[in-house]
Amino acid sequence: MELTYGHPKSLKPIQTKYCPGCGHGVIHRLVCEVIDELGVQERSVIMNPVGCSIWADLYFDFDSVQVPHGRTPAGATGVKRCLPDHLVVCYQGDGDLAAIGTAEIIHAANRGEHFTGIFVNNAIYGMTGGQMAPTTLIGQKATTAPYGRDPGEAGMGYPIRVCELLATLEGTRYLARGAVNTAANTRKTKQYIKKAFEMQLRGEGFGLVEILSPCPTNWAMKPGEAVEWLEENMISFYKLGEVKNTIDAASASPATKEATR
Fold it and tell me: Distance between CA atoms of 228 and 232, rounded to whole angstroms?
């Protein structure tokens, strides 16, 4: 009998610490499936910072570097420049990437650093207690916004669309946003990850894949309810799809290039 589907070689076969219904486990598998398909397990490096992503080195069966909170792109820049033939992946949450690490990711993207960001957006701080994050939606409750995010009188500001922000920078080549709420969206997200990894291995510039993921514990919901909430609230604000793709445009015909400008 031919085995058509199994456990990824790059993912350790152990029980995870993530909460029931959390999307991190699914995202881990997608990353590892792509690494296995590309045959780069022996030259892959994951950068995992503070947050739920700090556990990543427990599960990925390849090299990892733990970096200070928000400094993931700086660490990845150093690793990639020292090991240019390696696949270097920044695995970051919304607090790490879009709050304390905002300057880091913007400048790395603007420089066109040749690593790939995997940005897990669950619209809240996960490990540290459910505080409001830069990606928390208007009206969404958090421990630091018990009545919901209010950009008006409370002065809490507005949710940041990271991919759209980075798309304005000349150094970015590929930006996409997926989700792990359904099988169809999960398959599409894997395609985005594979395209971003392949681009990095060709040495073609900065890429990032944002992934909408449920956080049932800090959303105070059951896993099924969290998936429904993501579908009904997050996807309408954080639109899924490729936000910037200069890879396909570069390989298109002159007429197609002109039409996509």
Answer: 6
Query: Rounded distance, CA 20 to CA 53, Å?
Result: 16
DSSP state, residue 42: G
- The CATH architecture of the domain made up of 24-260 is 3-Layer(aba) Sandwich (3.40)
pLDDT in tens, 181-237: 999 999 999 999 999 999 999 999 999 999 999 999 999 999 999 999 999 999 999
> Do 28 and 59 contact (CB within 8 A), yes or no?
yes
The two tokens of residue 3 are 């085995």
Q: Which two tokens stand for residue 43?
A: 């030259």
Q: Domain segments of the chain: what residues?
A: 24-260
Nearest Cα to Cα of residue 117 among 143, 100, 92, 142: 92
**Angle ∠(101,51,157) on CA atoms, nearest 5:** 50
